[in-house]
Amino acid sequence: ESKRAGRGRFTVFDPALDAGIRRRHDTLAALRLGLERRELVVHYQPRIDARSGRIESAEALARWQRPGHGLVPPNDFIELAEASGLIAALGEAVLDQAMSQMARWTQAGLPLKRVSVNVSPRQFESGALPDQVRGALRRHAVDPSCLELEVTESVLSGDVTQVTRQLDGLRALGVTVAMDDFGTGYSSMALLRSLPIDVMKIDRTFVRDLETDPNAVAIAHAIVALGRSLSLRLVAEGIETPGQARLLREMACDEFQGYLFGKPMAAPEFEALFTATERG
Ligand code: C2E
Ligand code: MG
Ligand code: MG
Ligand code: MG
């Protein structure tokens, strides 16, 4: 127990809280070092063209191969990276790996249309994102149309003018922009109207309940209608059952993503799956 109460004050010492803070601190130090040591790996989840049933693109998803901890999922380190500012370097590392992989796949003749990369709202703060993206594309000689960036509605909580300017710059390059997890965040229709995007990803929470909850069907319908009228490409995420896929196909969704078609996987497995479905 702490005896180091400040002058005239009581310090409530909570060992559990202290352990939590220490763990966060240790994890951050390990993550910082891990980035330098290239422990960050990128997995790829297939996105399927709803009409042809073929793999059209892949979403790049970060994992941390942390020594002694196995493969750590992004939900265990992205938030920490965002809070500490490390997300800038992490985001750049993911982008670089994904573009390097896309270049290799293109060279190998794999007819993959694009790779999508998640971008944190904090990556818009410095204003350097368009330059970073242009640099990565150039470095790996990847066509800008082969890159899609996924942003969430939380970008709208930042400097919207700054974000919009950078998204405009990115789209001018030929990069496409997707609104990820649509329907779960701020969902300001006014801001949505002004945001330069090409794709809307219907969040998994609506897809999950499609077969059991009429309200989920109603919301999915409404999102598809909204996206359509804004001329956006519609992607449904988190599809796990053929029934969900059928309902979304009826709504004329453009692309499917979910465990039904494939979990996120390392590049060699993705390549094998892609080749198998192309042949089949
Ligand atoms: P997200 O961008 O919405 O990615 C989709 C998440 O849903 C992935 O989780 C994926 O594995 C999961 N998923 C896909 N299909 C299904 C399904 O059918 N059922 C279920 N239960 N889950 C499914 P993951 O890879 O754990 O990533 C979680 C989140 O972490 C991502 O959500 C994204 O917000 C964030 N993230 C991942 N990589 C990065 C990154 O490089 N940068 C940033 N800023 N965020 C990232
Ligand atoms: Mg995403
Ligand atoms: Mg998502
Ligand atoms: Mg998400």
UniProtKB/TrEMBL annotation:
Q: Which domain of life is it from?
A: Bacteria
Q: Which parts pass through the membrane?
A: none
Residue ranges of the EAL domain? 24-278
Q: What is this protein called?
A: EAL domain-containing protein
Which region of the full protein is contained in this chain? 472 to 751 of 751
